[in-house]
Amino acid sequence: MEVNKILVMPDVVDKLSAVGIDAKGSSAEELAALIKADSQKYARVIKQAGIKLD
């Protein structure tokens, strides 16, 4: 993927690092897995905290 190639360019890494960003490219599958894991994690947190929608 082109974005992944850009994210490892030294000048891009330097510019992102200068503003506190540590970018990491990934595949669509890796992103889907991260979203699924985060959704499960935060669903537990929301349930344990008793957060409700109004």
Largest sheet: none
**What is the CA-based Rg, rounded?**
17 Å
Distance between the termini: 41 Å
Percent in helix: 55-70%
* Average predicted local confidence, pLDDT: 94
**From N to C, what is the helix and strand string?**
HHH
Shape: elongated
Bin the strand percentage: under 5%
The low-confidence parts are: none
Q: Find the count of extended strands (DSSP E, 2+ residues).
A: 0
- What is the count of helical runs? 3
Secondary-structure content class: mainly alpha
Summarize the structure.
This protein has 54 residues and is an all-alpha fold. It is built from three helices and no strands.
Secondary structure: elements and pairs:
Blueprint: H1 2-7, H2 10-18, H3 28-49
Keywords:
3 helices, 54 residues, mainly alpha
Account of the protein in words:
With 54 residues, this protein is mostly helical. The protein has helices at 2-7, 10-18, 28-49. The longest helix is centred in the C-terminal third of the chain and has 22 residues, at 28-49. It is elongated and about 45 Å long. The model has no long low-confidence stretch (mean pLDDT 94).
